[in-house]
Known about the structure:
CATH class of the largest domain: Mainly Alpha
GO molecular function, one term: ATP binding
Organism: Fomitopsis schrenkii
Protein name: Protein kinase domain-containing protein
CATH superfamily of the largest domain: Transferase(Phosphotransferase) domain 1
Oligomer: single chain
Number of strands: 11
Structural class: alpha+beta
Shape: globular
Radius of gyration: 20 Å
Order of helices and strands: HHEEEEHEEHHEEEEEHHHHH
Strand content: 15-25%
Number of helices: 10
Helix content: 25-40%
Number of domains: 2
Largest sheet: 6 strands, antiparallel
Amino acid sequence: MWPVDLRFKVVDNETRLAIAPRLANRVSDTLRRMCAKYQWLPGACIVPAGCLTLLGDSAIDCGGYADVWRAMYHAEGRSAVVALKVFRVYAKDKLRRVRKQKFCEEAILWLRLRHKNIVPLLGADMTLFPVCLVSVWMKYGNISGYLRRFPGEDRLRLLIDVAEGLAYLHGEGMVHGDLKCANILINDERHACIGDFGLSAVIHDPDTIMSITPSPNAVGTLRWTAPEILDPESFGLEHAVATLETDVYSFGMVMWEIFSGHTPYDEYRYDATAQWKILSGVRPERPLHATGMGLSDLVWDLIQRCWHVDRHMRPAADTIV
Length: 321
């Protein structure tokens, strides 16, 4: 097993070793594939046994393929509340194997990320539950709930946080693929952090797109999703694939969501109607009440460029910052 541990150390220390980003991406992808194939993680990824104690007897939130629990993490004489992302494990062998593979893939992708605007992953645990990821607990919750509690908060500052986190991801050759306010959390210092990479996360490479997503329908959440993912053929594409440009489109929707306080296209009850509107070029209207919140003409112009129907016209994340 030592070659896998060695590869992890290379990826973990890629900055110190001055590995070129493209080479680091390839090494990381090789590690990800190996861990998924053998359903195994390097020892450096595992939280030491006995360090976790559950807080409560039920999950506090449920997602499409995982539940979130609160726990106490004990290490080196200190304790801290953490979040456990618990992957649901099915009885059928094939489904159980697929879930374990996805768990290993997400752990490897997330662990290599280190940025102030990315939710930190502490490691993986397979003692309390068959498969779960351990991350820092964000006591303020997601950005939407935070702004409802603190409506006077500086929205532009929070958006800069998100933009910096997204620019970092893209600089690492990664695409988030499911950017929305529900996946943006507020840390103890009240800064916004991107999290929940999940099945949508992909590695972006000039030669190939290596996706974790099992099917195009699982790429993103519809009302934040770029039109070229919803109907790739109409945009001259062969497949529905999350890209740097589709992340920027979603960021435009996040900006609108933060200023408006609403879910994009919430006036339409059915996703099918919202999808038709998106593909027809209809975008949310400017929330006039948000001018005092920082939604200037300049910011509104940026939002419109982010969700431009032509993906090539959207600004890069580092340009937004």
